[in-house]
Amino acid sequence: MIGLFVENMAVMSDLYTQILGLSNPWDGESPYAEFNDHEGIRFAMYERRCLPELLGSTPDYPERLNGTFELAIVVGKSQC
Known about the structure:
By secondary structure, the chain is of the alpha+beta class. The protein has one domain: Signal recognition particle alu RNA binding heterodimer, srp9/1 (2-Layer Sandwich). Helices cover 19% and strands 28% of the residues. It has helices spanning 9-18, 51-55, and strands at 2-6, 32-38, 41-47, 69-71. The chain has a 4-stranded mixed sheet with strand order 2-3-1-4. The chain starts with a strand and ends in a 9-residue tail after the last strand.
């Protein structure tokens, strides 16, 4: 999974659907959207302003890094 923390969901959703041709799963209101166009690859966006609520604290990024990228790799299947 690749996750981007974005400032403006509408603009970014349009960018990835119009420029890259991905499907548009965003409902126009939620702070989260996940594009599921490719099997085995998950690409998602989450609105940066909502991160404190999601994380329970305001994120603090290391100096000289912008904190807009997340990478998650599944190493095994869940039993659930």
